[in-house]
Design a protein that fits this description.
Layout lengths: L1 H17 L6 H22 L14 H15 L3 H13 L2
Length: about 90
């Protein structure tokens, strides 16, 4: 259990570091919109196969970070797809 918590904490920090470090607000917004659209397309491919539809408001953004890292390993999601689904879930609040 401790090992899993450590892995989730590390994964959350990694996701935070992946963010958009030196981009302008305009390009970040465009990138977020692109990720949102891609996440909306990928969500049913990866998540809806096993889960009922979950609204983005069900969890706080920081909770989605931990959930996504756990589910990324369970569903074997590529990093770019996980990032898009995460953006979709967080933005659909």
């Amino acid at each position: 259990m401790r090992r899993m918590l450590m892995a989730l904490a590390l994964a959350t920090l990694t996701l935070a570091a992946i963010g958009h470090p030196c981009r302008s607000e305009e390009s970040t917004t465009a990138e977020q919109r692109r990720l949102f659209r891609e996440g909306a397309r990928l969500w049913p491919v990866y998540c809806a196969q096993c889960h009922n539809a979950r609204p983005g408001s069900e969890f706080a953004p920081y909770q989605w970070n931990a959930i996504m890292m756990h589910m990324r390993t369970q569903a074997n999601l590529p990093a770019k797809d996980a990032r898009a689904v995460l953006e979709y879930l967080k933005a659909s609040r």
